[in-house]
Specification:
This protein has helices spanning 38-45, 90-93, 139-151, 168-179, 193-200, 214-222, 236-245, 267-272, 287-296, 315-320, and strands at 2-8, 11-16, 26-36, 59-67, 77-80, 83-84, 104-105, 117-121, 125-127, 161-164, 185-189, 205-208, 226-231, 246-254, 276-278, 306-311, 327-331. By secondary structure, the protein is α/β, with parallel strands linked by helices. Helix 3 crosses helix 4 and helix 3 (139-151) crosses helix 9. The longest helix has 13 residues, at 139-151. The termini are close together.
């Protein structure tokens, strides 16, 4: 079989590989499509250390070829949860397997999906609904992290929700908030091209991040600030803005991954507004059925978020060219 192997930072090669063996409790999945995310780009650039050679890819959809014990049945189309937990540590025992101390991620800690066949624990496979195209299905894995994040944020019908940062995850958060009955949903982005897309996907108002008095406008639209403000850009500046536009007694969901180690921040607002700040990580098993149900309802759309599709053999060149405006998907 063929796969794309990361030989070192920035060095990716198409190679012939041996088929992986199926272990106890595992299934073999023929991969159809793989999403590329910021984690993959960081691994590719050497910003996230891995052991080389490494096969990347953790947002994957495919068809079951075989499984130990016969479930799921061969031919079942599935999405694979790439986070594998030990099931025995303290975090696993308390139902927080996403924080497993001995867990690992396909595509980072062990070889992932940028190859024709992958083996994974059978319990990490979830059946996909009919009618969902292969090339958009990998985004379900991204959606599960948004579902998990919003479990921390009490979004009720009529709540004002502000989403700061309208990349793929920000646009998914917009849709989930609307599905939960939020009104209004306000999106803030520095990308002019995403303003219209945010409105198309359910934002009641979308505002350019560099617009004059943007924070005053958000507070005016929401009647004093967001009940829930979701930071989805992953910078200190956008988290600071999220705190400033939250109402007193509100909730800030620090969803974006921030790698900066310092910067200006309105610390006093945390006290003065009595804010709750949550920072979710990855997803849990129960988030997959919820995400799949949201897609099946037709009220969360994935197709507008795919901005580029490439065949497996063209991926090294595509990654070297830089990130896609939204989601890049690899077709196998």
């Amino acid at each position: 079989m063929q796969g794309v192997v990361l030989a070192g930072p920035g060095r990716m090669e198409l190679r012939d590989l041996e088929e992986p063996a199926i272990g106890p409790g595992e299934a073999s999945v023929r991969i159809r499509a793989v999403g590329i995310c910021g984690t993959d780009l960081s691994i590719f650039a050497g910003k996230i250390p891995v052991s080389y050679p490494r096969i990347m890819g953790h947002e994957m959809v495919g068809e079951v070829v075989a499984s130990v014990g016969g479930a799921p049945a061969p031919g079942t189309r599935v999405i694979v949860d790439p986070n594998v937990a030990c099931g025995r540590c303290a975090r696993c025992r308390e139902g927080r397997a996403n924080l497993c101390s001995a867990g690992w991620l396909l595509g980072r800690d062990r070889d992932g999906a940028l190859r024709e066949l992958v083996t994974a624990p059978a319990e990490n496979l979830y059946r996909l609904p009919e009618g969902l195209d292969d090339h958009v299905a990998p985004l379900i894995q991204v959606l599960t992290t948004c579902v998990h994040g919003q479990r921390f944020a009490p979004v009720f019908p009529g709540h004002a929700v502000v989403v700061v940062g309208l990349g793929v995850t920000g646009l998914l958060h917009v849709q989930l908030a609307k599905l939960r009955g939020a009104d209004p949903v306000v999106g803030v982005t520095r990308s002019p091209g995403k303003l219209g897309l945010a409105r198309e996907l359910g934002a009641d108002v979308a505002i350019a991040a560099d617009a004059p008095d943007v924070e005053e406008r958000v507070r005016e639209i929401t009647g004093g600030g967001g009940d829930v403000v979701i930071e989805a850009a992953g910078t200190v500046a956008t988290l600071a803005r999220s705190v400033r536009v939250a109402r007193s007694g509100g909730h800030v969901l620090a969803y974006g991954t921030i790698s900066e180690t310092g910067g200006e921040f309105p610390y006093y607002d945390l006290y003065y507004k009595e804010l709750v700040v949550s920072s979710p990580r990855a997803a849990q098993a129960e988030d997959y059925p919820v995400a799949i149900g949201a897609i099946s309802s037709g009220r969360v759309r994935l197709d507008p978020l795919v901005s580029r599709r490439v065949p497996l053999g063209d991926l090294p060149e595509a990654l070297a060219a830089g990130p896609s405006s939204l989601k890049m998907v690899v077709d196998l």
